[in-house]
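Q: Here's a chain of 165 amino acids. Please give me its 3D structure as tokens.
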Amino acid sequence: MIKLVVLDVDGTLSDGKIIYTDENKESKAFNVKDGLALACWTKSFGKKAIIITGRSSQITDRRAQDLGIKYVFQGIKDKVYVLDDFLKKNNISWDEIACIGDDLNDYAMLKKAGLSFCPADASHYIKDLVNVVCKSNGGEGAVREMIENIFKKENLEEEFLSLWQ
């Protein structure tokens, strides 16, 4: 059973584009479809989700707060080290996690995860590694696909759909 989903941000929760304004502000776009599925995962099903990203951004904190994701690790070079520590502290095994990532800095984490996903536009190295290559690109519904895949695999699909009936 999957107890935890682990999310990369740039190229996974977002489309990977980082826009800088003349006022030196940064912006990213997130997909509401991904958000709906993640909010169901955390709020309706009471499951855990964490973000582990190589970059640091206040935008990521805000998105995590909107989605009910309590655990956010930013500016991380060694994602496996951070995730391993988190898993030990929360009594979760690597087999009980699902990860999604899109690029080489996610490689080691995806390789160890019990269930691994990547967006359709991920690096070919990552596509060759993961259990599931989503049909959607990063920031365009790939995380939603991951959550729905888990619900289906764990026979929670009817319960998920019942939230909307």
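Q: Can you summarize the key feature?
A: The two ends are 25 Å apart (CA to CA).
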